[in-house]
Amino acid sequence: MLFSFIALIFGGALLLSLPFAHNGELRFVDAVFTATSAVCVTGLIVKDTPVDFTPFGHVVILSLIQIGGLGYMTAVTFMAVMRKQKIGHRDRLILKESLNHPGMDGLVRFLKIVFASIIIIEAVGMLILTLRFWVDMPFGKAVWFGTFHSISAFNNAGFSLFSDNMMSFRGDFVINMAIPLLVILGGLGYIVLLEIYNFRRDRLLRISTHTKIVLWMSGILILIGMILLLSLEWNNPKSFGGLDTYEKILAAWFASVNYRTAGFNSIDFSTLTDSNLFFSTFFMMTGGSPGGTAGGIKTTAVALALIGVWYTLRGDTNAHIFRRSIAQYQINKAYAVIFVASFYVVMTTIILSEVEHLPFLRILFETTSAFGTVGVSTGDGGVLSYSALFSDWGKINIIVLMLMGRVGVFAFTIIIVGKAVESRIKYAEGKVII
Question: What Cα–Cα distance (Å) separates residue 55 from each residue in 23, 52, 137, 179?
Fold first, then answer.
């Protein structure tokens, strides 16, 4: 999985480096950064997408987003299925990991449903956005802008063909509903979407514990994000202070959804208070849900960790939710994911703050955004991300973080340290005071 992403990134970078793919000078490190941001569906940019890239470059970026959002191995396997080629056991294992599918049974059928779902959702999003953009631009251009932003939104990429992203549409109801809903659908995960569909069609007797946790956590996090933004920014003259109540609510909704999964923005994040920037890092670290297009430590990991903490404080060893028990090893895995992810982000932030000599909080915001494959940024003072101010070494650090967040903390760490060899020795239990 990791090497397929790396191969796709460098292939995309080479295409973006072609003379007819960009305008002006494009250093290779910036091409790699842009390709990584597209493949890892992040949205951090060190080049202005609509200005610095040609239409061919835009097509390359959009293709990288679509393939990266689904997963390179998943896309290749689907093409093989369409050609009626036999899928080997090894490819099925990789496909299972890419889609976070619970088992090997029904894997090919699930893959076909995933592709059908993607086409339908993105087509509906494209139609809505095209009709909206048609108000402001010629029909042909509106179709292209609708297609680009629909794919970018559903794959939680956050790339935009507007230099100010979505800031010009801050008070537009259609844009502020269509983009976030596409982002949410992409971030929920294909398993959740399929379960909801089957349940609504009476093909499923009950919703699984996984889907319930994903839906509840997603709703709660969006609501908390909105409350924090409105309460901390309501009277801030630099951000929400000059907006009317309607625009404040739309802006808070739009930002809260994009905090965790996509890099679209309708406000300038550099104007937010330090407290809001700090709290937002928790949302970005959480990210989306397993089996979707978002990165981060995932909503389910945070939910299991909170459940584990709650029952530990109560002195109850039998953790459960929705009348279903939660295995202790799953809670321990959630703890491990959160710890390892926090370690990566904190260490990268410390290194970058020492090397780049830039404000710590803004670097923390940028690194968390990269790891969560979110893409929101406090900016460079213009239209680019804060990463544009980094040296080549700093950009490489962000590239690694984006790749890590997309592949997954466990998968990335196992590649580095290797799997533990099963021991045949069991030591006597030692007592430790906590």
Answer: 10, 10, 17, 22
CA distance 21 to 59: 9
CA–CA dist 165, 251 (Å, integer): 13
Residue 429: its H or E element: none
Residue indicated by tokens 């990266």: 68
- 10 Å CB burial of residue 317 (0-12, 13-18, 19+) is exposed
- 321 three-state secondary structure: strand
**Contact criterion met (CB below 8 Å) for 288 and 294:** yes
Report the distance separating Cα 232 and Cα 269, nearest Å: 13
What count of residues does the chain have?
434
Residues of the chain with pLDDT under 50: none
Residue 154 near residue 121, CB atoms below 8 Å: yes
Summarize pLDDT for 108-140 with one digit per residue, the tens: 777 777 788 888 999 999 999 999 999 989 999
Place of tokens 């460098």: 10
> DSSP class of residue 271?
G
The tokens describing 282, both together, are: 């928790």
